[in-house]
Protein 1
Amino acid sequence: MALQVYNTLTRQKELFTPIEPGRVRMYVCGPTVYDHAHIGHAKLYVSMDIIVRYLRYTGLDVLYVQNITDVGHLLESGEDRILKGARREKTDPMQVVERYMRSYMDDMDGLRTIRPDIMPRATGHVPEQIAAVEQLIQSGHAYEVKGSVYFDVSSAPNYGKLSGRKVEELEEGARVDVRAEKRRPQDFALWKRAEPEHIMRWRSPWGEGFPGWHIECSAMAGKYLGANFDIHGGGLENIFPHNECEIAQSEALSGKPFANHWLHAGSLTVDGVKMSKSLGNSVTIQKALHQYPAEVLRFFMLSSHYRSPIDYSEDALAAAGRGWERLIAPALAAQRALRQPPAPDNAAVDFSHRLENARAEFSAAMNDDFNTPGALAALFDFAKQVNTLLAAHPRPHDETLNAIAAFYWELAGDVLGVLPVESADPGGSAAREETLIRLLAEIRAEARARKDFATSDRIREQLGQAGVALEDGKSGTIWKIDAPTASD
Ligand SMILES: [Zn+2]
């Protein structure tokens, strides 16, 4: 089955066909960096991360752009979020931006999301935004009033096509003075004049001012991905007005359809309640990562479809932790089995068809609009089969064990990012440790064979002090590492 994605624009699942064969151009609305990111952001960006990872797994070359909003995203009061952060911390707006952009990057690295290929900042693209606004005025889609420029919604016949709202129902939550100067209440700001006390300001053909939030995304998406590209992602709350306005502006600028597929991630509640500062139930990603391993947080989010809402609670995370341990236990068991003496020749087990079936089930689920609960079910099914195999044959051939390990590294590790990094990376420190212990065990066996007990005892003792216990059995030496296990 080929990949099907649900498109918010058409309200149906449709076949995903990249504009340029083999390449995907994707834009995701990034964070407004005025405070620490919370787990609602984690849900959105982990969802988008899985989409990018899976597209790459299928062999597509993905160009992933996610912006940083550092100006123009206003609160309902009309205050710029960045300026609010600067006021709160009694510091320069750009210092706030740097602080929380770094915090966001740390959070995203902590959650093991893959960094976007390009992370353009809105303040770094003001000339592009001014050029877009000028073009919209020239083509009759926008008008200037007292140093502010507004988009004329009546000039965009398709306005409302993404959100399904009718123009008559729409009204921007603007202050009365702003509302009064617009031709119609639905028109939205492309450029705003800066009042004398406003710090963040740029020169423009209409006087000093700053860009509107929507035009930032249109300008940056157009610059890096072209007028028409494959995927635009965001959170459900971005659909209106933000994404709707992006479409209106971009399509008025180019005359071409903007993004072909609109993918929106569902929201996150905490203990059944919408997260909000005033309720004091906001959980930062930092705090969540302090309480739970990144892999467990990811597993929790992937246990629901990305478009579904999820509820974050201690119980839900505890259940996710248990599920996650069950999922990865056979991967760790296969690695442990590899440490045992080699299998006798009669231990050949043909496991390849099971691997193929599991991979096919995994792909079938992911091809169905990135159905991660289905993909996890396929992995659980496979885990059961590995457990059965290891119960019957404690030491299958290296070939079988390596194939099982590689399967986990690729699907649970590379695609879903739920395998602990240490065990997921064959070139990582855990794998290196294994090689070194194996080498020392071999040297010790050689020393014993030539009755050099001083050397063999020294190796055993020193490894013991390092937490590695060597045990001599009938069929050779095995070792146990006193290392943190998956549940630690
Ligand atoms: Zn955006």
Protein 2
Amino acid sequence: MAIDLRSDTVTRPSDAMREAIAHAPVGDDVYSDDPTVNSLEERVAAMFGKEAGLFAPTGSLANQLAIRMLVAPGEELIAETNSHIVRAELGAAAVFSGITTRTFPEKNGLLKASDALEIARPNSGPYLVSTTAIAVENTHNFGGGTVQPISEIAALRTGADELGLALHLDGARIWNAHVASGVSFLEYGKYFDTISVCLSKGLGAPVGSVMLSTKERVTKARVWRKRYGAGMRQIGLLAAGAHYALDNNIDRLAEDHRRAKEIAVAIAAIDSSLIDPSIVETNIVGLDLAALPITAAELAQRCRDAGLWISALGPKYARLVTHLDFNDAQCAEAIEILKKALVA
Ligand SMILES: Cc1ncc(COP(=O)(O)O)c(C=O)c1O
């Protein structure tokens, strides 16, 4: 059986999670009649100190519903250059919501509030685009699982308030940020107007994200979710998997972080230009192959031939993500395969 480290989305529901799914009370969620969905939305909203939540089938949709509530057509969202909203949602903000984006680059995606605030241009009058919101990704996926410092988030909030801007958190992996930093979900929640969290990445549910905000925004977002065709029926089945994931799979993320660090340390020992292990704080290991005579696609192929699946996300950038279906024995095996593939 191959070891699959392409993403933390490749996990399969455990027997216990399937059991919870099988016995979930359900109803028609388009009528807001599904008790398991309703309790999940309330639960996640309370965790982050928000008034309401809305279940969404994907993190992308949760992000898109949220930013649509903050930014009007023709207005601007600012986000980091390699953020998921900018790079991996296929222009959805522009296509669906008429939102323009401007970006600021950060090394490893690590937020510096002043960089975002510097390019913000609210109330730009009739000739220039007005900024209305800033998005933060925590942890930062393509940055290598980077945890955003709470001091920078707080500084961003202060600056955003001075400029009259809203803040969105793409918290697909906020669980990893919490476990790595010890910062509470309530603390993260208080700085943002809208939040998206994902239950199907590190936490291992098969499907599901939740968008969080005020009752008013969530009520409006519910209409847009239906308009986009994502009004679903007996999805308590999915929400039950998400409840199970919240009950059982948050604290264990520390194991994923430990294994990612082990991989990073082993790879840095081969060639320190590939990765600085000190920046691996969560479950993502990003490899910079710039100094090696091998492309990311070639490395991924060599690994695949040896039974390890990794992602080639750029010509010279490969990514490995640890997750709950990856154990210590597989970690040792993955390290051996990587060592051989890198020096071959
Ligand atoms: C940071 C981040 N946000 C949002 C998403 C989107 O999630 P989905 O694939 O469920 O649309 C991802 C997916 O990997 C992600 O890494």
